[in-house]
TrEMBL record:
The keyword Glycosyltransferase applies. InterPro entries: PRTase-like, PRTase_dom. Keywords: Allosteric enzyme, Glycosyltransferase, GTP-binding, Nucleotide-binding, Transferase. This is uracil phosphoribosyltransferase. Its EC number is 2.4.2.9. Residues 3-206 form the Phosphoribosyltransferase domain. It comes from the Bacteria. Its cofactor is Mg(2+).
Length: 208
């Protein structure tokens, strides 16, 4: 979890406000997403790497050990892509569409577009809400089938709840989860408390 600073709490105060202007919601949620991405990238392995500075000295730096790509869970996960592109302009991006089946109530995969050789490196899995954990687990299973090692999956989520964290980590202990807040619980309708509402609808302006 991101360090729970006063600044981060002030950002959450804006996006959780039901009366927040959409432009404020977009601006502030994007700022939190940038913090999440930077934190997630810091979990990746780095190798020593030396470069020559303009004054002829050697700087002992670092560079990523392995390739990294990202996969967003449509449509809410697409909201994180712009901030990721700002930090990593050349990163390869995949996408999944997973929705709950109306009959079985289980997550169903409708679309999976993954970068080639995705199993060779680390994957940032993007979805701003980790609620019941069903969609996250389904997405992780798709990545595992594609050859991605469980310990190389970093799930980036704006807000999580204990039920969702347990659902993922009870089945995939090696997956790492980065979030900016852990809410109290889910209510009887599977909404987070205190929550933020439907993030995708608020972000894309389709809320009523």
């Amino acid at each position: 979890m991101l360090p729970q600073t006063n600044h981060l709490r002030s950002l959450h105060t804006v996006i959780r406000d039901r009366a927040a202007r959409r432009e404020d919601f977009l601006h502030v949620s994007s700022r939190i997403m940038r913090l999440l991405i930077e934190f997630g990238l810091n979990l990746l392995p780095f190798d020593p790497w030396e470069v020559q500075t303009p004054v002829g000295r050697t700087y002992s730096g670092l560079r990523l050990t392995n390739d990294v790509c990202a996969v967003s869970i449509a449509r809410a996960g697409n909201s994180i892509e712009a901030e990721l592109r700002a930090v990593c302009p050349t990163i390869r991006l995949g996408q999944m569409l997973i929705q709950r089946d109306k009959v079985t109530k289980l997550p169903r995969l409708y679309l999976s577009l993954l970068p080639p050789n995705i199993g060779d490196g680390h994957v940032l899995l993007l979805d701003p809400m980790l609620a019941t954990g069903g969609t996250a687990r389904a997405a992780i299973e798709v990545l595992l089938e594609a050859g991605v090692a469980e310990e190389k999956i970093i799930f980036i989520s704006l807000i999580a709840v204990p039920e969702g964290l347990d659902a993922v980590l009870d089945n995939h202990r090696a997956v790492r989860i980065v979030t900016s807040a852990i809410d109290e619980r889910l209510n009887e309708n599977a909404y987070m408390l205190p929550g933020i509402g439907d993030f995708g609808d608020r972000f894309y302006g389709t809320d009523r």
